[in-house]
Amino acid sequence: MANRCEICGKGPVVGRNVSHAHNVTARRFEPNLQRVRAKVDGTVKRIRVCTRCIRSNRVVKVA
Fold it and tell me: Tell me, which fold does domain 1-63 have in CATH?
Protein backbone atom coordinates (compact mmCIF):
# COMPACT_ATOMS: atom_id res chain seq x y z
CA MET A 1 0.00 0.00 0.00
CA ALA A 2 1.36 3.39 -0.94
CA ASN A 3 2.27 5.68 1.92
CA ARG A 4 0.39 8.63 0.45
CA CYS A 5 -2.37 10.99 1.58
CA GLU A 6 -5.54 10.34 -0.42
CA ILE A 7 -6.54 14.03 -0.32
CA CYS A 8 -3.40 16.06 -1.08
CA GLY A 9 -1.07 13.32 -2.33
CA LYS A 10 1.65 14.00 0.23
CA GLY A 11 4.13 11.12 0.31
CA PRO A 12 7.52 10.23 1.75
CA VAL A 13 10.53 12.41 0.99
CA VAL A 14 14.17 11.41 1.26
CA GLY A 15 16.89 13.07 3.27
CA ARG A 16 19.99 12.24 5.22
CA ASN A 17 20.90 11.53 8.83
CA VAL A 18 24.06 13.41 9.74
CA SER A 19 25.76 12.34 12.97
CA HIS A 20 28.03 14.44 15.15
CA ALA A 21 31.00 12.73 13.46
CA HIS A 22 29.41 13.69 10.11
CA ASN A 23 28.61 10.10 9.13
CA VAL A 24 25.89 10.45 6.51
CA THR A 25 23.20 7.80 5.92
CA ALA A 26 20.00 7.92 3.89
CA ARG A 27 16.60 8.15 5.56
CA ARG A 28 12.94 8.70 4.68
CA PHE A 29 10.62 11.27 6.16
CA GLU A 30 7.19 9.62 6.30
CA PRO A 31 3.98 11.70 6.31
CA ASN A 32 1.85 11.46 9.44
CA LEU A 33 -1.06 9.46 8.00
CA GLN A 34 -4.15 8.52 9.95
CA ARG A 35 -7.02 6.23 9.00
CA VAL A 36 -10.26 8.17 9.36
CA ARG A 37 -13.87 7.52 8.52
CA ALA A 38 -14.78 10.30 6.12
CA LYS A 39 -17.66 11.22 3.87
CA VAL A 40 -16.55 10.75 0.26
CA ASP A 41 -19.09 11.41 -2.51
CA GLY A 42 -21.96 11.00 -0.06
CA THR A 43 -20.79 7.62 1.28
CA VAL A 44 -18.73 6.79 4.34
CA LYS A 45 -15.30 5.35 3.58
CA ARG A 46 -12.10 4.70 5.50
CA ILE A 47 -9.30 6.73 3.95
CA ARG A 48 -5.70 7.44 4.85
CA VAL A 49 -5.11 11.17 5.16
CA CYS A 50 -2.34 13.31 6.57
CA THR A 51 -2.88 15.28 9.75
CA ARG A 52 -2.50 18.58 7.90
CA CYS A 53 -5.62 17.75 5.83
CA ILE A 54 -7.54 16.74 8.96
CA ARG A 55 -6.52 19.90 10.78
CA SER A 56 -7.39 22.22 7.89
CA ASN A 57 -10.87 20.66 7.49
CA ARG A 58 -10.23 19.28 4.02
CA VAL A 59 -11.77 16.02 5.29
CA VAL A 60 -15.38 15.74 6.47
CA LYS A 61 -15.12 13.32 9.38
CA VAL A 62 -18.04 11.06 10.32
CA ALA A 63 -18.92 10.38 13.94
Answer: Ribosomal Protein L24e; Chain: T; (2.30.170)
